């Protein structure tokens, strides 16, 4: 299946174009040992063919071990788990949003713009000297994903054309 991967970035917190608040939507710290880390990624990614949706326990162990500094945040809507944000801290004061998404039950309810606003604000607060926040999305992800990223102020800096098999 043909896939276009788009990388987007923000190089200053003043570039954030926040979405209006959604009452009841919050971003909470999630312990890396919580079963929600794996469960949410599988639930979010399964509809879009994310590789994580089919990982074995051994592959998850490798994923955790490769990035011991990975940080996790749970998106909640009126206290219910609604999505997940995963951050990787990279050299050069860069923060990658490695995972961002809502579970299928919360997609299409008008939460994505504010959820991304919360995720980006948190990214800029992770270290005192963040110079860049970036992430990537695929043409196989939710059809509004890239538009949401652009509306929040992220700019495309690279695209890759490939094949997801």
UniProtKB/TrEMBL annotation:
InterPro entries: Acyl_CoA_acyltransferase, GNAT_dom. Residues 25-165 form the N-acetyltransferase domain. It holds the Pfam family Acetyltransf_1. Gene3D superfamilies: 3.40.630.30. Coiled coil: none annotated. This is GNAT family N-acetyltransferase. It comes from Actinoplanes flavus.
